[in-house]
Each structure stands twice: as structure tokens, then as C-alpha cells.
Amino acid sequence: MSNSHSDTNSPVKEAFWRFSRKSPGIAKPVNNTHPHRFEKFNGNMIPNRKKDYDSIYNSNNSHGQFSSHLTTSGDSINIHNSNIATTTTTTTTTSMTATTNTTVTNITGETTHLSISTSSTTSLPPSPNSLSSSLNSSNGGIDTSQTSQQQNIAQLNNNRTKKFEKLLTGSNVDLESLKSLGWRGIPDKYRAMSWKILLGYLPTNEERRDEHLERKRKEYRDSLPQYYICDEKKNEADRKTLKQIQVDVPRTNPGVPLFQHPKIQMLLERILYIWSIRHPSTGYVQGINDLATPFIWVFLSEYVEDIMCCQVDKIESNMLANVEADSYWCLTKLLDGIQDHYTFAQPGIQRMLAQLKGLLEKINHSLCAHLADQDAQFIAFAFRWMNCLLMREIPFPLVIRMWDTYLSEKEGFSVFHVYVCAAFLVLWSDDIKQRDFPDIMIFLQKPPTQNWEEREIESLFSTAFYYRSLYEEAQSHLKSNNSNNNNNNNNNNNN
């Protein structure tokens, strides 16, 4: 099916590499472990065929690359002048359809219209990391048994786990290598330690870690009697803050049983209250309660095997105390990087909203126009996306996977998250365009992600990575050219 005039878009990784081969400077270099499957273009190794795209996932990718778990039963690309239309069909139990129309201005000043249409229905496997039982391509497909694929995936996961083990058990952790490896997900066994190092809470030097942990945990424990005092000794502002926290804590992640347990709720309450007292310029803001929960979840998994079904009452009190202290310090590290999200008028979030709107106007102008026609302001639906980092829109276990990538980003949460939100919004473009203002708000406040698995997050990140590669680099080229032109003009004027 060719749809050269469609301007909606869903995950576009099937078209990304083909488009990259036509567009020097957009494709990213990969560590090629399958040279016979790739051709060299502009200094980069580019897949010869679509089915070879999945080989990227199996290689030791450089920082910022992504993987694909989708399988294709048929694919086609039709090129009409400067329009590229892509249609991909897969064997499915869950389906999504979307298209996109992108206008790109290259560094020579010419305008190129990229229209990518993807219609995909994805077969959900028994587990988030498994693939469908066959892979077929209209260009000459291959059939692989499900058992063989599961063995390959198990071997892949085992290899990644060994890489983390080797990296984290060394005397000194290479932070850039950890970011590169962690961008595509961190094994459960090494996630807690990796997060602490990525946030700068744990030293990269092994000899200093135990002493550092003991000192920081003691510092937090000593602060409890100093700050977490009885109501009679609190001033009016502190009592008001605590009351708001006590209202928000029971409503935090209501669908996750762990956070409905009284001990965990008290633990979260203390973390939030002490953080607000020690940061009076910011204070407690709704949304910070959400940001603390991934740390509690991940750090508790160091002490229990099955975090989903753990019995909190049987966990030793000193273990819970360690989880509380570690979560507090890591939350502090996280918020230090996005503190302007929670100061007066929240300028950091306002900036991200403006960036999201500008990005959507380039990616999908008709969707942006429809939102404007319906008076659906970005602040009305996307403010929470920025404030809570999509934690209320994505199933909680998948949020943990998302944070693996966010914490591995060189720029932190703020930059890449905007592209993720753009990909998330464009994913529902067809549905949104058929709705009026009330239905748009209801839909975007509770999008149909309850059955999502890790494959959907990988696909979302693939699209976000594509957008960043396309627009962020194109803007930097344009800025560079403009700067050079201005310098030349100034020199001419001086002469």
C-alpha cells in the first residue's frame, strides 16, 4: 500500500536505515559483527536488507543506538519524487497504524518531504524479550523455529549480562562504557548498582564504594530525628507540606501493590518530606512522588527475588532502611539535574513543552493543526508527561526499562524525553485526528498502553532516536552554516 500523502507516523525503524542511506550524515556508525550483511556508505555500515536490521540489536552497539524486536512478513518501499512511503505488515495480536509527513530542510536550503507510512500488527510473544516464531521478507525471507529464536535470545541476554558483570566487577568502572551498554537496557541483576553509578551516587572506584555507602546511609538516618519531628514542633509551612505529601502518597502508583503497603508508603513519605525540608527553594511539588518510586522498586530488588510478589513485612528493617537512604540520595541526584522543573513557574517544563510543540510542527503539521483547531493546548495534556516523565501513561515495569536509557543519556532526562514524547504523541495521530477536544483530553490522559510490553518501548525509543538524529543534527548544521555566513558577511563589511 502506498500512501505518499499521508502525514501520520508510527515507529519508523524499518524505513530509518533506508532513508539514512539516501541522506549522508544521518546514519549512525555501528560496530559491525556481520560484514557480509552490510554495505559501507558515508563511512557507516548500513544494512543491505531490512531483515538485517535486527543484527544491530545483536552487535555491541555504540551509545545511543536502539534495537528492534518486530518481525516482518512483508515490506515495501515506494519512492515518488521526493516522497518515501513505507508499508510494513506483521503477524499480530495487537495492531497499530500510523503515518507521518516530515518536511526537512537540508543544509543547502532545499526542502525535502519525507512521508513514511507504517501499518503494523505485532505478535506478542510469551515474554517481553522473545520474538515471534518466524521472520519472512518479500525480498527473500527466512523461517526460524521458535525454539531456535528463544535460544538465540537467551544467548544474547547471557552475553549482555556477562558484559555488565565484567564492567561492574572491575576495580574502576568506565562510565562512558556503562552508559553505552545501559542505553539498550540493564539486566535486573545489575540495575541497582548501575543506576547508582550512573547518577553519581556510587563512586566508579570499587575501593571507595562500601565506605561511601555507609557514610551516606548514616547521614540520612541521622537526619530523620532532626527533620521528621512531631507536628507540634513543625512550623505552619512544614505542616502544610507534610499534609500534601500524605494526600499524594496513597495515590502514587495505585496499580502497583508494593506502593500500597503501609511500610512502603511511610518510607516514601519520609523521603519526600525530608527532601522538601532540605530544599526550601523548591519544596515539595506534586509529581516528585512519582519520581521516587522507581528507585524504591529497583533498590528493593537487591534484597528480594520477586519484587512483584514480595512480602514487605518479612523484609528486615535494616534492608528497608538502606533502600530508603539510597532512594533519597538518588532522587536528590536526579532532581538536581532538573531542578528548574520544580521552581516557581516551572521554567524547565515550560521549555520542554515549547520544544515538543516546535518538534511536532515539523514532524506532523496536520496533527499540530488539528490540536490547535480543537484548542487542545500542549500544556493541558503534555505538562504531566514532562512533570512525571510519562510514568502515569506507561505501565510501571516498563518505566523501569525507560529509565535505563534515560539515566544512560549524556544530556540526562530533559533532552531525549522531548523526542520520546513526540514519538508517543505521533503514535496516536490517527486516533487523535478523529476526536474533538473533550475526547482528545480523555484519550491522552489515559492512552491504551495497558497491554504494552518491552517491544513497544523499544519501538518508541527507535522512533525518538530517529527524530533526534534527523532534527537535532539538521539544526546544528544550519546553525553552523548561519554562523559561518554571518562571519563571512562581517569580514566583507570590515573590508
TrEMBL record:
Transmembrane segments: none
UniProt feature coiled coil, ranges: none
The UniProt record lists the keyword Repeat: no
Entry keyword Heme: no
Xref: PROSITE patterns: TBC_RABGAP
Cellular compartments per GO CC: Golgi apparatus
A Pfam family: RabGAP-TBC
Biased composition range(s): Polar residues: 140-150
Chain intervals for the UniProt region annotation (Disordered): 114-150
Name the UniProt record assigns to this protein: Rab-GAP TBC domain-containing protein
Lineage: Eukaryota, Amoebozoa, Evosea, Eumycetozoa, Dictyostelia
